Each structure stands twice: as structure tokens, then as C-alpha cells.
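Researcher: Next entry: Ribonuclease HII (Gaetbulibacter aestuarii).
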Amino acid sequence: MLLQSFSDHDFECGTDEAGRGCLAGPVTAAAVILPPDFEHDWLTDSKQLSAARREALKPIIEQQAVSFCFSHVYQEEIDKINILNASILAMHKSVAGLEPQPHFIIVDGNKFKPYKTIKHKTIIKGDSKYLSIAAASILAKTYRDAYMEKIHEEYPMYHWNQNKGYPTEAHREAIKKYGITKYHRKSFRLLPEQLKLGL
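Model: Predicted structure:
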């Protein structure tokens, strides 16, 4: 059973990101403030759910949340500031979009930078412990998946509709065969034998 909240603040938001380990596309974060009485039997860490369940939960979360926001940080920025900083930036941008602003932030994982003067707590595996982080994980994942499906139409040979930019064998084979696109993260090790790519 996931917990409602960590703090005793009225407006506590959960935040999480998706796409950190991908070779292409943005890292996407979401932040969600849920009402204190929110509950749903399916709601858990997005990685534990089927795509169909995530898609079914998305409108429920959006309709019932006090506030929610998601944000993409794209590959150019990831290459400039590194993936950890890009993940935190995406979370900050998502929190910035909440209205009302939260009084407390709970963050999935163990890395975060203070956002303004709002207190925060990092929670390892927070998406399987707290409802608001689980909700944020679902929004981040579904919005990022939708973006990857859109750019798949531009570059179908990389199979982003299936791998969503993660380093699958098919994705790496396509990079070997076709090279890289404007959506690839050039600072990432795209192939085990990267030196041969001539990046």
C-alpha cells in the first residue's frame, strides 16, 4: 500500500523523471500534488505497470490532481549539462509549473538540488512508496513515450515506438547502420565501440 504523504504539509508534491538511461530523446519529469483522499488500486511505480494501465491512469491522475505539470529537457541540453543535471532541471521545471506551488517536495531517487526555498526529501524507490511520486512517474513516462512515438515517424529505422530510445540491440544496430540523428545524445556512449563511429 502506497503512502499518501511524507510531510504534514497541505501541498506536498511528488516528482520523478523518465528516460535517464536512453540514448536518444529528452529526459522528462513530472510533478504532481494529489488531494489527501486520493486512492487508486492500480497506482504504483510506472515501471511495474503495463503501457495500457499507465495510459488508463494518466487521465485519472490529471483530472483528480490538485495540480500537475510535466517538462522535457532535450538532448542538446543533456549534452551540455549532463544527464543528472538535466534530470534535476526537468524536475525543477515541473515543480515551477504547479499552481498552487508546493510547500514540500518528495523526490524519487537520491539526487536533487534545492528548489527555491521549498524543503525537499529524496526517497530511494519513492515511486513504489508514495502515491504522488508514483503519479509523477506515470505522467513522466507517458508524456515521454508519446514524444518518442512522434519522432519515430521521422526516423522509423531506430524503432523508437518500441524501445523509446533505450539502448536495445535493435537501437544499437540501427545506430551502427544509419549513424546518429539530431535526437541522439552525443555525450552518451551510443555504441560499445564508440570510437569507430567517428562522432
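Model: Note for the record: The first strand starts at residue 12 and ends at 18.
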